[in-house]
Fold these 2 entries.
Entry 1:
Amino acid sequence: MADSPLTTLNNGIQIPQLGFGVWRVSNEDSIPAVTKALEVGYRHIDTAALYRNEEGVGQAIRASGVPREEIFVTTKLWPTGFGRETALAGFEASLKRLDMEYVDLFLLHWPAPGRDLYVETWQALQKLLADDRVRALGVSNFAAAHLRRLVDGTDTTPVLNQVELHPTLTQADLRETHRELGIATEAWSPLGQSEDLRHPTIRQIAARVGRTPAQVVIRWHLQAGNVVIPKSTTPARIEENVDVFGFELSPEDVEAIEALDAGNRLGPDPEHFDG
Ligand code: NDP
C-alpha cells in the first residue's frame, strides 16, 4: 500500500492522516488487530485508557519490529481522572500500560462540562510537553465554546479535536471553528459504526467508482482534510480500509456525501456528558 499522507499539526509535528482505532476491542483481540494493521501499513494507532487495551496495543507495536518512532500513538484521559494531580498520574498509568517512553498525542477524552475541570487539567498537562513525555496535546469531543475557553484561557492550543464525524454527521460548523483556530479535525466513528455504509448514495458512488462503501467513506474523509481512524477486527477489512490511496472522488461525489448530513449522532452529546 502507499503510505498515508501526513497532516502537519499546529505545533509542527506530523500525524498520518489515516490511522487505526481500537474502541470496543478487548486487550486480547487488540494484539492480532494491531499486528495486522501494522503489517498492511497503518502507522497511527488510536487507543484510550477507557478501552482497557493499552497493554495489548503496546505489545503488538513492540512485537511488530516497526521502530517505535515510525508509529504515531494516541491515548486519552477519561474525565474521572481530571484534576491537576490525578491527570498526571493517569498519564503515567497509560504510559506504563503501553510500556512506552512517550506517547505522540495525549487527549482529554471528553470536556465533561459538568465537572468543570478541563481547563485546569489542560494546564497541568503542559508539563508533559515540557518534559518530552508527549509530542502533542489535544482534545476530543470538545464543542466550539469548550475550545474557545482553552484557547483564550491557556498558553497551548490543542493540536486537534477528535469528534464524532461521518457522512450522516458532518459537523460543518465545528470544522469551520477548527479552521479558524488552527485545530485539525479528527473523525471518530468515521464509518458511522458501519451504519453509513448502507446509505444508498454511498453505495451508488461505490458501485460507480468500483470501490467498497468503506473505501469511499474513508476517501471522503481524506479529501475533506480529516484525520480518520476506522476500526475493524476483520483482517480483510483492515486491509480494505487502508487501500484508499489509488483513487480519488470527484468534487461532485465529495459534495454529494457532504450533503448526507442528518445530525445523526451515535454517541453522547458533549454538552451533556460528564463521563
Ligand atoms: P467505525 O465508524 O470505525 O466503524 C467500525 C465498525 O465498522 C465495526 O463494526 C467494523 O466491523 C465495521 N467495519 C470496519 N470496516 C468495515 C468495512 N470495510 N466494511 C464493512 N464494515 C466495516 O466505528 P468506531 O466507533 O470504532 O470508531 C473508530 C475509532 O474512533 C474507535 O475505534 C476509536 O479509536 C475512536 N473513537 C473515539 C471516541 C471518542 O470519544 N474519542 C468514541 C468512539 C470511537 P468489524 O470490526 O467487525 O470488522
Entry 2:
Amino acid sequence: MNTHEFQAKQILRKYGIPVPDFYIASSSKEVEEIIKQYQLQSAIIKVQVHAGGRGKAGGVKLATNPQEILEFSQELIGKKIINEQTGPSGMISHQVLISPAILIKKEFYLGITINRELASRVLIASPIGGINIEKIAHEQPNQLLMLPIPLEETFRSYHLIRVASFMGWKGKQIQEGVAIIQSLVKAFKETDASLLEINPLVETKEGHLLALDAKLSIDDNALFKHEDLKTLFDPSQMSNNEARAQQFELAYVALEGEIGCMVNGAGLAMATMDLIQYHGGRPANFLDVGGGASQDKVAEGFRIILSDSNVKAILINIFGGIMNCETLASGIIEAAKGLEIHIPLIVRMEGTNVEKGKQLLQQSGLKILITENLTEAAQQAVQLAQSVR
Ligand code: ADP
Ligand code: MG
C-alpha cells in the first residue's frame, strides 16, 4: 500500500526525523485559511499523488507571495500527474501540501528497501540526492552506497561512520544524520514497510539536516497488524476497478486486451493469459478470484470485467480444488443471473465434481460455451471476441 508524502512525513516526524512544517489543503478556502493563520509569505506547493517524479512533471511549485500561494495551489488541486511512476492513466492530486521553502545547500538521498537477492533490508545512501536520483543510480553507481541492515535491526557504529563519511557529513551533521538513519531503520521495521525513503534529505543554510520529501510503501500482507496505518489508504489513487477489486480482496490488474479473464488461482490466471496470447488474442485483465471464490467475489469479478468496454468475451477458467466444481458453477450462475451479460461467456472447468458442475452450467439457461480443455477455451475465446468486433 502506497501512502502520500504528507502521511509519510507524519510518520517520520513521529520517529523524531526533522521535517519542515507542512499544511494540507483540498480547496481554495482551505488554502486562504492556511495563508492567513500561518502568515505565509512564500511557500513550496506540491501535489499529493502516489508517485514520485512530481517535480519534473510540474507538480512542485515555488510561490514567492501569498497571491501565488493561492494561485499555484488552485492550479495543482485537481491536477493530473502523468509520468513513468503513475502509469499512462495518471493520478489526480485531490490535495496539495504547502510547506515553507527551504534554502538548500546540498541534497542527499537516504532510503530503505528490501533487496530480495540479498534476502535483506538494505539502506541506500547517496551524497547526490534530488530529482535526478534514478539517473545518478544508473550513470554513477559509485555515488550510491548499499548497506544490508543487520538481523538485529540496528547498525553498528562502524556502519554509521561509513555512511556519514560517504555522505560527507561534518561536525553536528554526523550526529543528526546518524540519528536519522537509526530512526529510519526503526520506522521501516515498525511500519512493516517495503520502501521508506527521504529524497531529498537536505543540508539547510544553517547546516542542519532536514527531510524535504518522503515516500512510504507498506507491505499489504502486514496491514492486518496495523489498524492505524490501514486508515492511510487512499482509493482515489487507483483506478476505480482496482479499488473495487481491493475491497473484495480480488487480485486484479487491468490490461489492454479484449478477453476478460476470471480464474481461480494466480498461476492458472497467468497460464490462461499466456494461452490467449498464444492463440492470437489479448487478455483484458489479470483476475484471480482466489481458491475459495465465493459468489460475491465472482459477481464482483464479473462487474469489474464488464465495466471495461474493450472486453468482447469472457473466459472463465476454473479448477475445482479447494472448492468443488459444483459449488463454483452455482456461484457463477447466481452471479451471472444478476447481471446482464451480452458478450460470449466461455468456460473451462476441471477438478472435483466437474461433471455435475458442467451439468449445472448447461441447465442454467445462460448462454455459456462449455469447452473440453484450456486450449479449446482460449481458441474459442479469441475467435468469439473477434466475431463480436
Ligand atoms: P518529487 O521527488 O516527487 O519530484 P520533491 O518533494 O522531492 O518531489 O520535490 C522536488 C524538488 O523540489 C526537491 O528535490 C527539492 O529540490 C525541491 N523542494 C521540495 N520541497 C522543498 C521545500 N520545502 N523547499 C525548497 N525546495 C523544495
Ligand atoms: Mg523527491
